[in-house]
């Protein structure tokens, strides 16, 4: 057990609530990984549910489908508002695309939530190989490299100043490509830790959620600016 994993286990169980955007994709796997590291994990489908979470996971799946459904259900604006207001958010694979400010190789008009100052390329590894697995060292994750599963994954083509690159592919045709980033309380990985049983990336995120909760949640228990109403979509 790593230090991070241990600290997540030893803090009060369920002291933070982390939502998983549950429109499409591997929602169940993220809920299980979050619960395993001691968070209260809940699906988020409606704008009002955003007000009840301390952090949010955008799962893997299909970013265009998720964005279309989010728009149809009136969630896109509230999601943008929540991320902009500082809601800690972790995007894996399609979730990374949704968090990115700029997307290459996207169908015309693809919407994102944005907030993460990166340019990602969709299906970036596809030219070499559709899906593959590789060991990736992730800064902030102790205990050795993460076994990273890539499935029609994006990579980060360009990260602005202020975005920390916390993981790159080592070896193979995609050597050096950026596949994990962090900007404040936003985290994104090209790969799917929720599919491997290794909960260290989720533990890292839940620790960020705890730290942000201490900063943002005041005595009234609300995150400033995050509510059920409002956002344009
Ligand atoms: N290629 C998908 C997309 O663009 C992402 C794949 C995944 O999440 N495994 O949304």
Please provide a written account of the structure:
The protein has 233 residues and is α/β, with parallel strands linked by helices. The protein has one domain: Rossmann fold (3-Layer(aba) Sandwich). The chain is 26% helix and 26% strand. The protein is built from 6 helices and 12 strands. A 7-stranded mixed sheet has the order 2-1-3-4-12-11-10. The chain has a 3-stranded mixed sheet with strand order 5-6-9. Helix 2 links the parallel strand 1 and strand 2. The longest helix is centred in the C-terminal third of the chain and has 17 residues. The N terminus and C terminus are likely disordered. Bound molecules: glutamine. Glutamine binds next to helix 5.
Quick gist of this model?
With 233 residues, this protein is α/β, with parallel strands linked by helices.
Q: Key features?
A:
single chain; 233 residues; alpha/beta; Rossmann fold; 7-stranded mixed β-sheet; 3-stranded mixed β-sheet; disordered N terminus; disordered C terminus; binds glutamine
